[in-house]
Amino acid sequence: MKFSDIPYHDDVKQRLRDMVNGARIPHALMLEGPAGAGKMMLARALAQYIHCENRSAAGDSCGSCPACRQHEAFSHIDTFWSFPVIKKGKSGLSDDWLSSFFDFMRDNPFMDMTKWQASLDNINAQPTIYVEEAAELARKLSFTARQSRYKVAILWLPERLQQAAANKLLKIIEEPSDDTIFVLVSNNSKAVLPTIFSRTQRIRVNRYTDEQIASLPQLAAVDDASVIARLAQGNANTALELMSVSKMRRKFMDLFIELMRKAYQRKIVLLRQWSTDVADMGREGMMQFYDYCSRMIRENFIANIANDSLLCMTADEAAFASRFAPFVNERNVMEMFDMFSKARNDIAANGNGKIIAFDIAIKAILLLKR
Asked: What is the rounded distance in angstroms from the CA atom of residue 42 to the CA atom of residue 141?
C-alpha cells in the first residue's frame, strides 16, 4: 500500500512522511478517528514507507523493491499484525486467522468491522484481542529486526484489548526495543486503556467530507453518489454498502410505493402477494429493504414538515414524496419506524419472512388512516 493509493488525507500523509524522513518516528503511534476513514490504509502505507529501500523524491514508497513487493503480498518478515478474533478452540491468536485477515484487507481496505465479524462465522461472538495474543506479540518483538532497520507492529482496534492483554501490551509499549515501532489503529480511542493511550503519539484522521465520499473511485459510476455520500456521513464503508444497495434501490422503491398505495386502498389480497414478493428477496434482501423503508419514512416526515434542506432523496423518491409525505405525520411516524425496525430484527432472528411482511401490510393499513 502506497500513500498515493489512499484517497485524500494529504495532511496526515505529510506528517507521517516527515516523521520517517526526519528519523522522528515515535515508538508508539495511534491513528485515531471514525470508522471508514481509511486509517488502516495509512498504517499500511506507513509501514511500507518505513521499510522501502528506494523511497521516491515525491515522498512515497517505490512499490518495486523487495520490501515493497513483500508488503504487497503481506509477507514482510518485520511486519506483525494483531487484531480482534474469536477463539478457535482454546487459541485466541491472530495468527490463527492471518490468511483470512489478509483477504479481508484486500477486499475491504476501509476495514468494515461488521464484515470482519461476519467472516469469523459467528455473528454473536465479540471479536477480542486476547491476553495470549499480547504475549505472542511480545515474543515476536523480542527478536531483532531481520531485514529492516525497524520492526513494525500494526494493531487494529486496541479498544478491543482484554484488560489483561492491555496490561501485558503496556509493558512492551513502555519499554520497547530501539528497533520496534507500534502503530495502533483505533475507531474509538476513548475506549483504549488510558495508560496505553497516554503513551502513544496520536494523529487524528478525520472523516471524509461528503464531496470526498462522492468522488471515491468506487462510486464514480453511481448515479446517486451524492445521495449516498450524504447518507454515509463520512464513512466509506457505509457508502460502499449503500452503493451495493443502490443497485436494488429501484426495486426497494417500487415495493415501498406498492405497499403504501395498496395499504391505503386496503387491498388485502394484493398485499398478500406483496408479502410473498418481499419474502422472495431472502433474509439479507429483506433486512436491507426494511432499512430502506425506515429511511423513506424519515425523509417523508421531514418533507411533511417542509424542511427541505434536510432531505436526502433521489429525484424519483422525491416525486413520490411530494404526494405521499402528508400521510406521514406526528400521529404515526414513530409507530412506522418501530414497525420496520421490529421487522428487520425479526428477520435477522430467522423469523418467517412472509408472515412478517404481511403483518407490516396490515399495520400500514391502520397507520396510514391516522
From this structure: 22
Helix axes 236-246, 249-265, angle to 10 degrees: 70
Burial annotation 74-113 (CB, 10 A radius, 16+ → b, else e): bebebbbbbbbbbeeeeebbbbbbeeebeebbeebbbbbb
β-bridge pairing 79-82 and 151-156: parallel
Contacts of 297 (CB under 8 A, 6+ apart): 328, 333, 336, 337, 340
What crossing angle do the helices spanning 282-304 and 268-279 adopt, rounded to 10°?
Answer: 120
- The pLDDT tens digits of the residues spanning 318-365 come to 889 889 989 999 999 999 999 999 999 999 888 999 999 999 999 999
H or E element in which residue 186 lies: strand 180-186
- Write out the H or E segment, with its range, that includes residue 181: strand 180-186
In 3-state terms, what secondary structure has residue 180?
strand
Write out 138-157 in H/E/C secondary structure.
Answer: HHHHCCCCCCCCCEEEEEEC
Element (H, E) at 182: strand 180-186
User: Cβ distance 59 to 21 under 8 Å?
Assistant: yes
3-state secondary structure 24-82: CCCCEEEEECCCCCCHHHHHHHHHHHHHCCCCCCCCCCCCCCHHHHHHHCCCCCCEEEE
**Which residue, 30, 74, 32, 82, is CA-closest to 51?**
74
Q: Quote the cell numbers at residue 190.
A: 476513548
Question: What's the grid cell of residue 94?
Answer: 491472530
Least confident of 89-93, 186-190, 222-226, 249-253: 222-226
Q: pTM, whole model, 2 decimals?
A: 0.75
Each residue of 179-199: pLDDT tens digit?
A: 999 999 999 999 999 989 999
Angle between the 163-174 and 131-141 helix axes, to the nearest 10 degrees? 20
